[in-house]
Amino acid sequence: MARDYTPSHSRRRAGILAAATAALALVGTQAASAADPIRGHDVSSHQKHVDWPAARSDGARFAYVKATESTTYRNPYFARQYDGARRAGLIRGAYHFARPDKSSGAEQAAYFVRHGGDWRADGWTLPPALDIEYNPHSKKHPCYRLGWKRMVAWIRSFSDEIERETGRRPVIYTTAHWWNTCTGGSRAFASNHPLWIARYDTSHPGALPGGWTYWTFWQYGDKGGLPGDQDLFNGPPSRLRALARGDRPRGA
C-alpha cells in the first residue's frame, strides 16, 4: 500500500510491468466484465500534492487516500488529496493503516472515522478501507505479536466500530499470504467485507484468502501511469457507483 515510509518487509518486484500490461488487458478468470478496466490508484502523504485532473485524464476513475495510522498519525495532505480527487471527478474513499500492536481495533476505527474515514451515501464516497498487512516496523513480528484468534478479534472489533459509526462494513486490503499467516485463513469476513487484494508479480490476483471468491479491488503494482499504487475495480462503472451509494457489492 502507498504509505509514508519504506516498508521493511520486502515484496518481489519482478514482472511488475508485465503484470500491469496483463492487468489492463484483464487477463485471467477473475477479470472484470467491463469492456475496459476501471482504473484507479491509492495515495498517501508520500505523493504530497497530487495533480488530480491529470490523473483523471490519464484514466483514473477512483482513488483511495490514506487518512490515519494507529491512533497517533494523520496524513497531513489528506484533506487536499481527498477533496482534490472529488473535484476532479473521481469516486474516492479513505483508508486506515492498521497497527494491531498499538491499540484496539475499535479505538483505531473511531480515530479513523474522526479524521477522514466517515462515509456518506452521495455516490462519490467509497466504503472506509482497512489496510492490514505485514508489520513494516518488524520483520520478526509480521503479525504484530498477535496470534490468529486475537488478530481475527482485532479485525472484528475494527469492523464493528466502523459499521456502528458509518453504517458500512469496511473494505479489507490485504495479501493472501499475510491473511493466511496472521489470521489462519479466517473465513469470518468474506461474506460482508469487500476484498482489496494486493498481488504485484503476476498477471492475475491469484488465489484469494479467507473464503473470498471475488475481489472488488486489485492493487497490481506500485509503479505505473498514476500517482501512488495502481489499482483496478472488478466491474463496470455502474457497479463502482453502486458501491459508493451503499449497495451491497458482489462477493461481499
Description:
This protein is α/β, with parallel strands linked by helices. The chain has one domain: Glycosidases (TIM Barrel, Alpha-Beta Barrel), CATH 3.20.20. The chain is 30% helix and 18% strand. It contains 7 helices and 9 strands, in the order H-E-H-E-E-H-E-H-E-H-E-H-E-E-E-H. A hairpin with a 3-residue loop joins strand 2 and strand 3.
Count of spatially separate domains: 1
Helix % is 25-40%
Note the beta-strand portion. Answer: 15-25%
Overall mean confidence score, pLDDT: 88
Please give the CATH class.
Answer: Alpha Beta
Intertermini distance: 22 Å
Instruction: Tally the beta strands.
Output: 9
Name of the CATH superfamily = Glycosidases
SS content category? alpha/beta
Q: The CATH topology is what?
A: TIM Barrel
CATH architecture descriptor name: Alpha-Beta Barrel
Strand order of the largest sheet: 1-2-4-5-6-7-8-9
Give the radius of gyration.
Answer: 16 Å
How would a crystallographer describe the biggest sheet?
8 strands, mixed, barrel
Which descriptor suits the 3D outline?
globular
Query: What is the overall number of helices?
Result: 7
Which H/E pattern describes the elements? HEHEEHEHEHEHEEEH
Keywords:
252 residues; 18% strand; globular; disordered N terminus; single chain; TIM Barrel; alpha/beta
Compact description:
With 252 residues, the protein is of the alpha/beta class.
What topology does this entry show?
Layout: H1 16-25, E1 38-43, H2 52-57, E2 60-69, E3 73-74, H3 78-87, E4 91-97, H4 105-117, E5 129-131, H5 148-166, E6 171-174, H6 176-183, E7 195-198, E8 217-221, E9 229-233, H7 237-245
Parallel strand pairs: 1-2, 2-4, 4-5, 5-6, 6-7, 7-8
Antiparallel strand pairs: 1-9, 2-3, 8-9
Helix pairs in contact: 4-5
